[in-house]
Amino acid sequence: MSSVHAQAKRVKAGDRLALARLITLIENGEGKFQSILDDLYPSTGKAHIIGVTGPPGCGKSTLVNCLAKELKQIDEYSTHKIGIIAVDPTSPFTGGALLGDRVRMQSHASDPDIFIRSMASRGALGGIALATDNVAMAMDAAGYDPIIIETVGAGQSEVEIASLAHTTIVVEVPGLGDDVQAAKAGLLEIADILVVNKSEKPAADTTVASLERMLALGEDLKEKRIGSQWKIPLLKTSAIDCEGVSTLAESIRAHYQFLHTSGAWEKCNLVRLSKQVNALLRESLFDAWQEQIDLAGFNALMEKVMSHQVSPHQAVQMLLDTYQ
Q1: Beta pairing partners, 118
Q2: By percentage, how much of the chain surpasses pLDDT 70?
Q3: What is the C-alpha separation between 114 and 80, in angstroms, rounded?
Q4: What is the DSSP string of 79-141?
């Protein structure tokens, strides 16, 4: 048995250490992780991927911590293992990350049915790390279902999660000072479930009323994206004491059932896998193209760009004409 097949077999058997080591290889882009993922791929495609996004400070990590516990109370998930991927922002200066989301989820550290992995965004836009797709695939193969992905919390760029998750939860919070910020960011357009967290705050009802108006205005956009059959729930939670999170868990279960009965499950998977194939294709073509480039010629061309003799667009066209 090859070492690749042996490692894949351990992951499929639910070996947490083997899964953790594979995720480290994925994050670092090291070794034969892609060969292991290729071996695992036939065992994937079963997990319900849940995305949790929203602005910084809205309580996503605390909410996910409660949600994992509440999902285990639902019959469909009571015997399941739950995977959590928490993406933290990377410092642009040191390249490091605090990985504070994992600190907030320490209550699950000893639970054998919950696997938590914190990841640094490493400069990736869209609120998720570049390796998140592959880490979710590894967890799926290891039998984790559902898999909850918590995004960075960077605000207006956090819409990438909608193309990765089957169910996208957008978390808002009272008192941010701009009730239409979510609409401007496009976050309401990706929501399958909308949550106002920290509902114990006095401004919570005002925020809910504003979001209800925005949902009504965005009804046409919702119909184009997920169909008119699903009515986006607007829920109030207080994650600090897990209030309202059981209702959120039930809404997730209801959306899961809707995805399967409406045929949207296959549509979500097609979008996610098409995006992954396109990303890998772009990366492979660019790497192959770079290997052909004459460095001296490239540097000479860049000197012309620097001296404003050639525009960046013209430079790209010249490179494509030379190395196509």
Answers
A1: 86
A2: 80
A3: 9
A4: T-EEEEEEEEPPPTTT-----HHHHHTGGGTT-TTEEEEEEE-TT-STTS-TTHHHHHHHHHH
Please tell me whether residue 309 adopts helix, strand or coil conformation. Answer: coil
What is the C-alpha separation between 208 and 64, in angstroms, rounded? 21
Q: Is the pLDDT of residue 97 over 50?
A: no
- pLDDT of residue 257 exceeding 90, the answer is yes
DSSP secondary-structure letter at 31? T
Which residue in this structure is represented by tokens 């999170």? 245
- Which homologous superfamily is 44-262 in? P-loop containing nucleotide triphosphate hydrolases (3.40.50.300)
pLDDT digits (tens, 9 = 90+) for 164-201: 899 999 998 887 655 555 454 566 778 899 999 988 88
Alpha helices in the chain (DSSP H): 3-12, 16-28, 33-40, 60-71, 100-104, 132-141, 181-185, 187-190, 204-217, 219-226, 245-262, 264-292, 295-306, 312-323
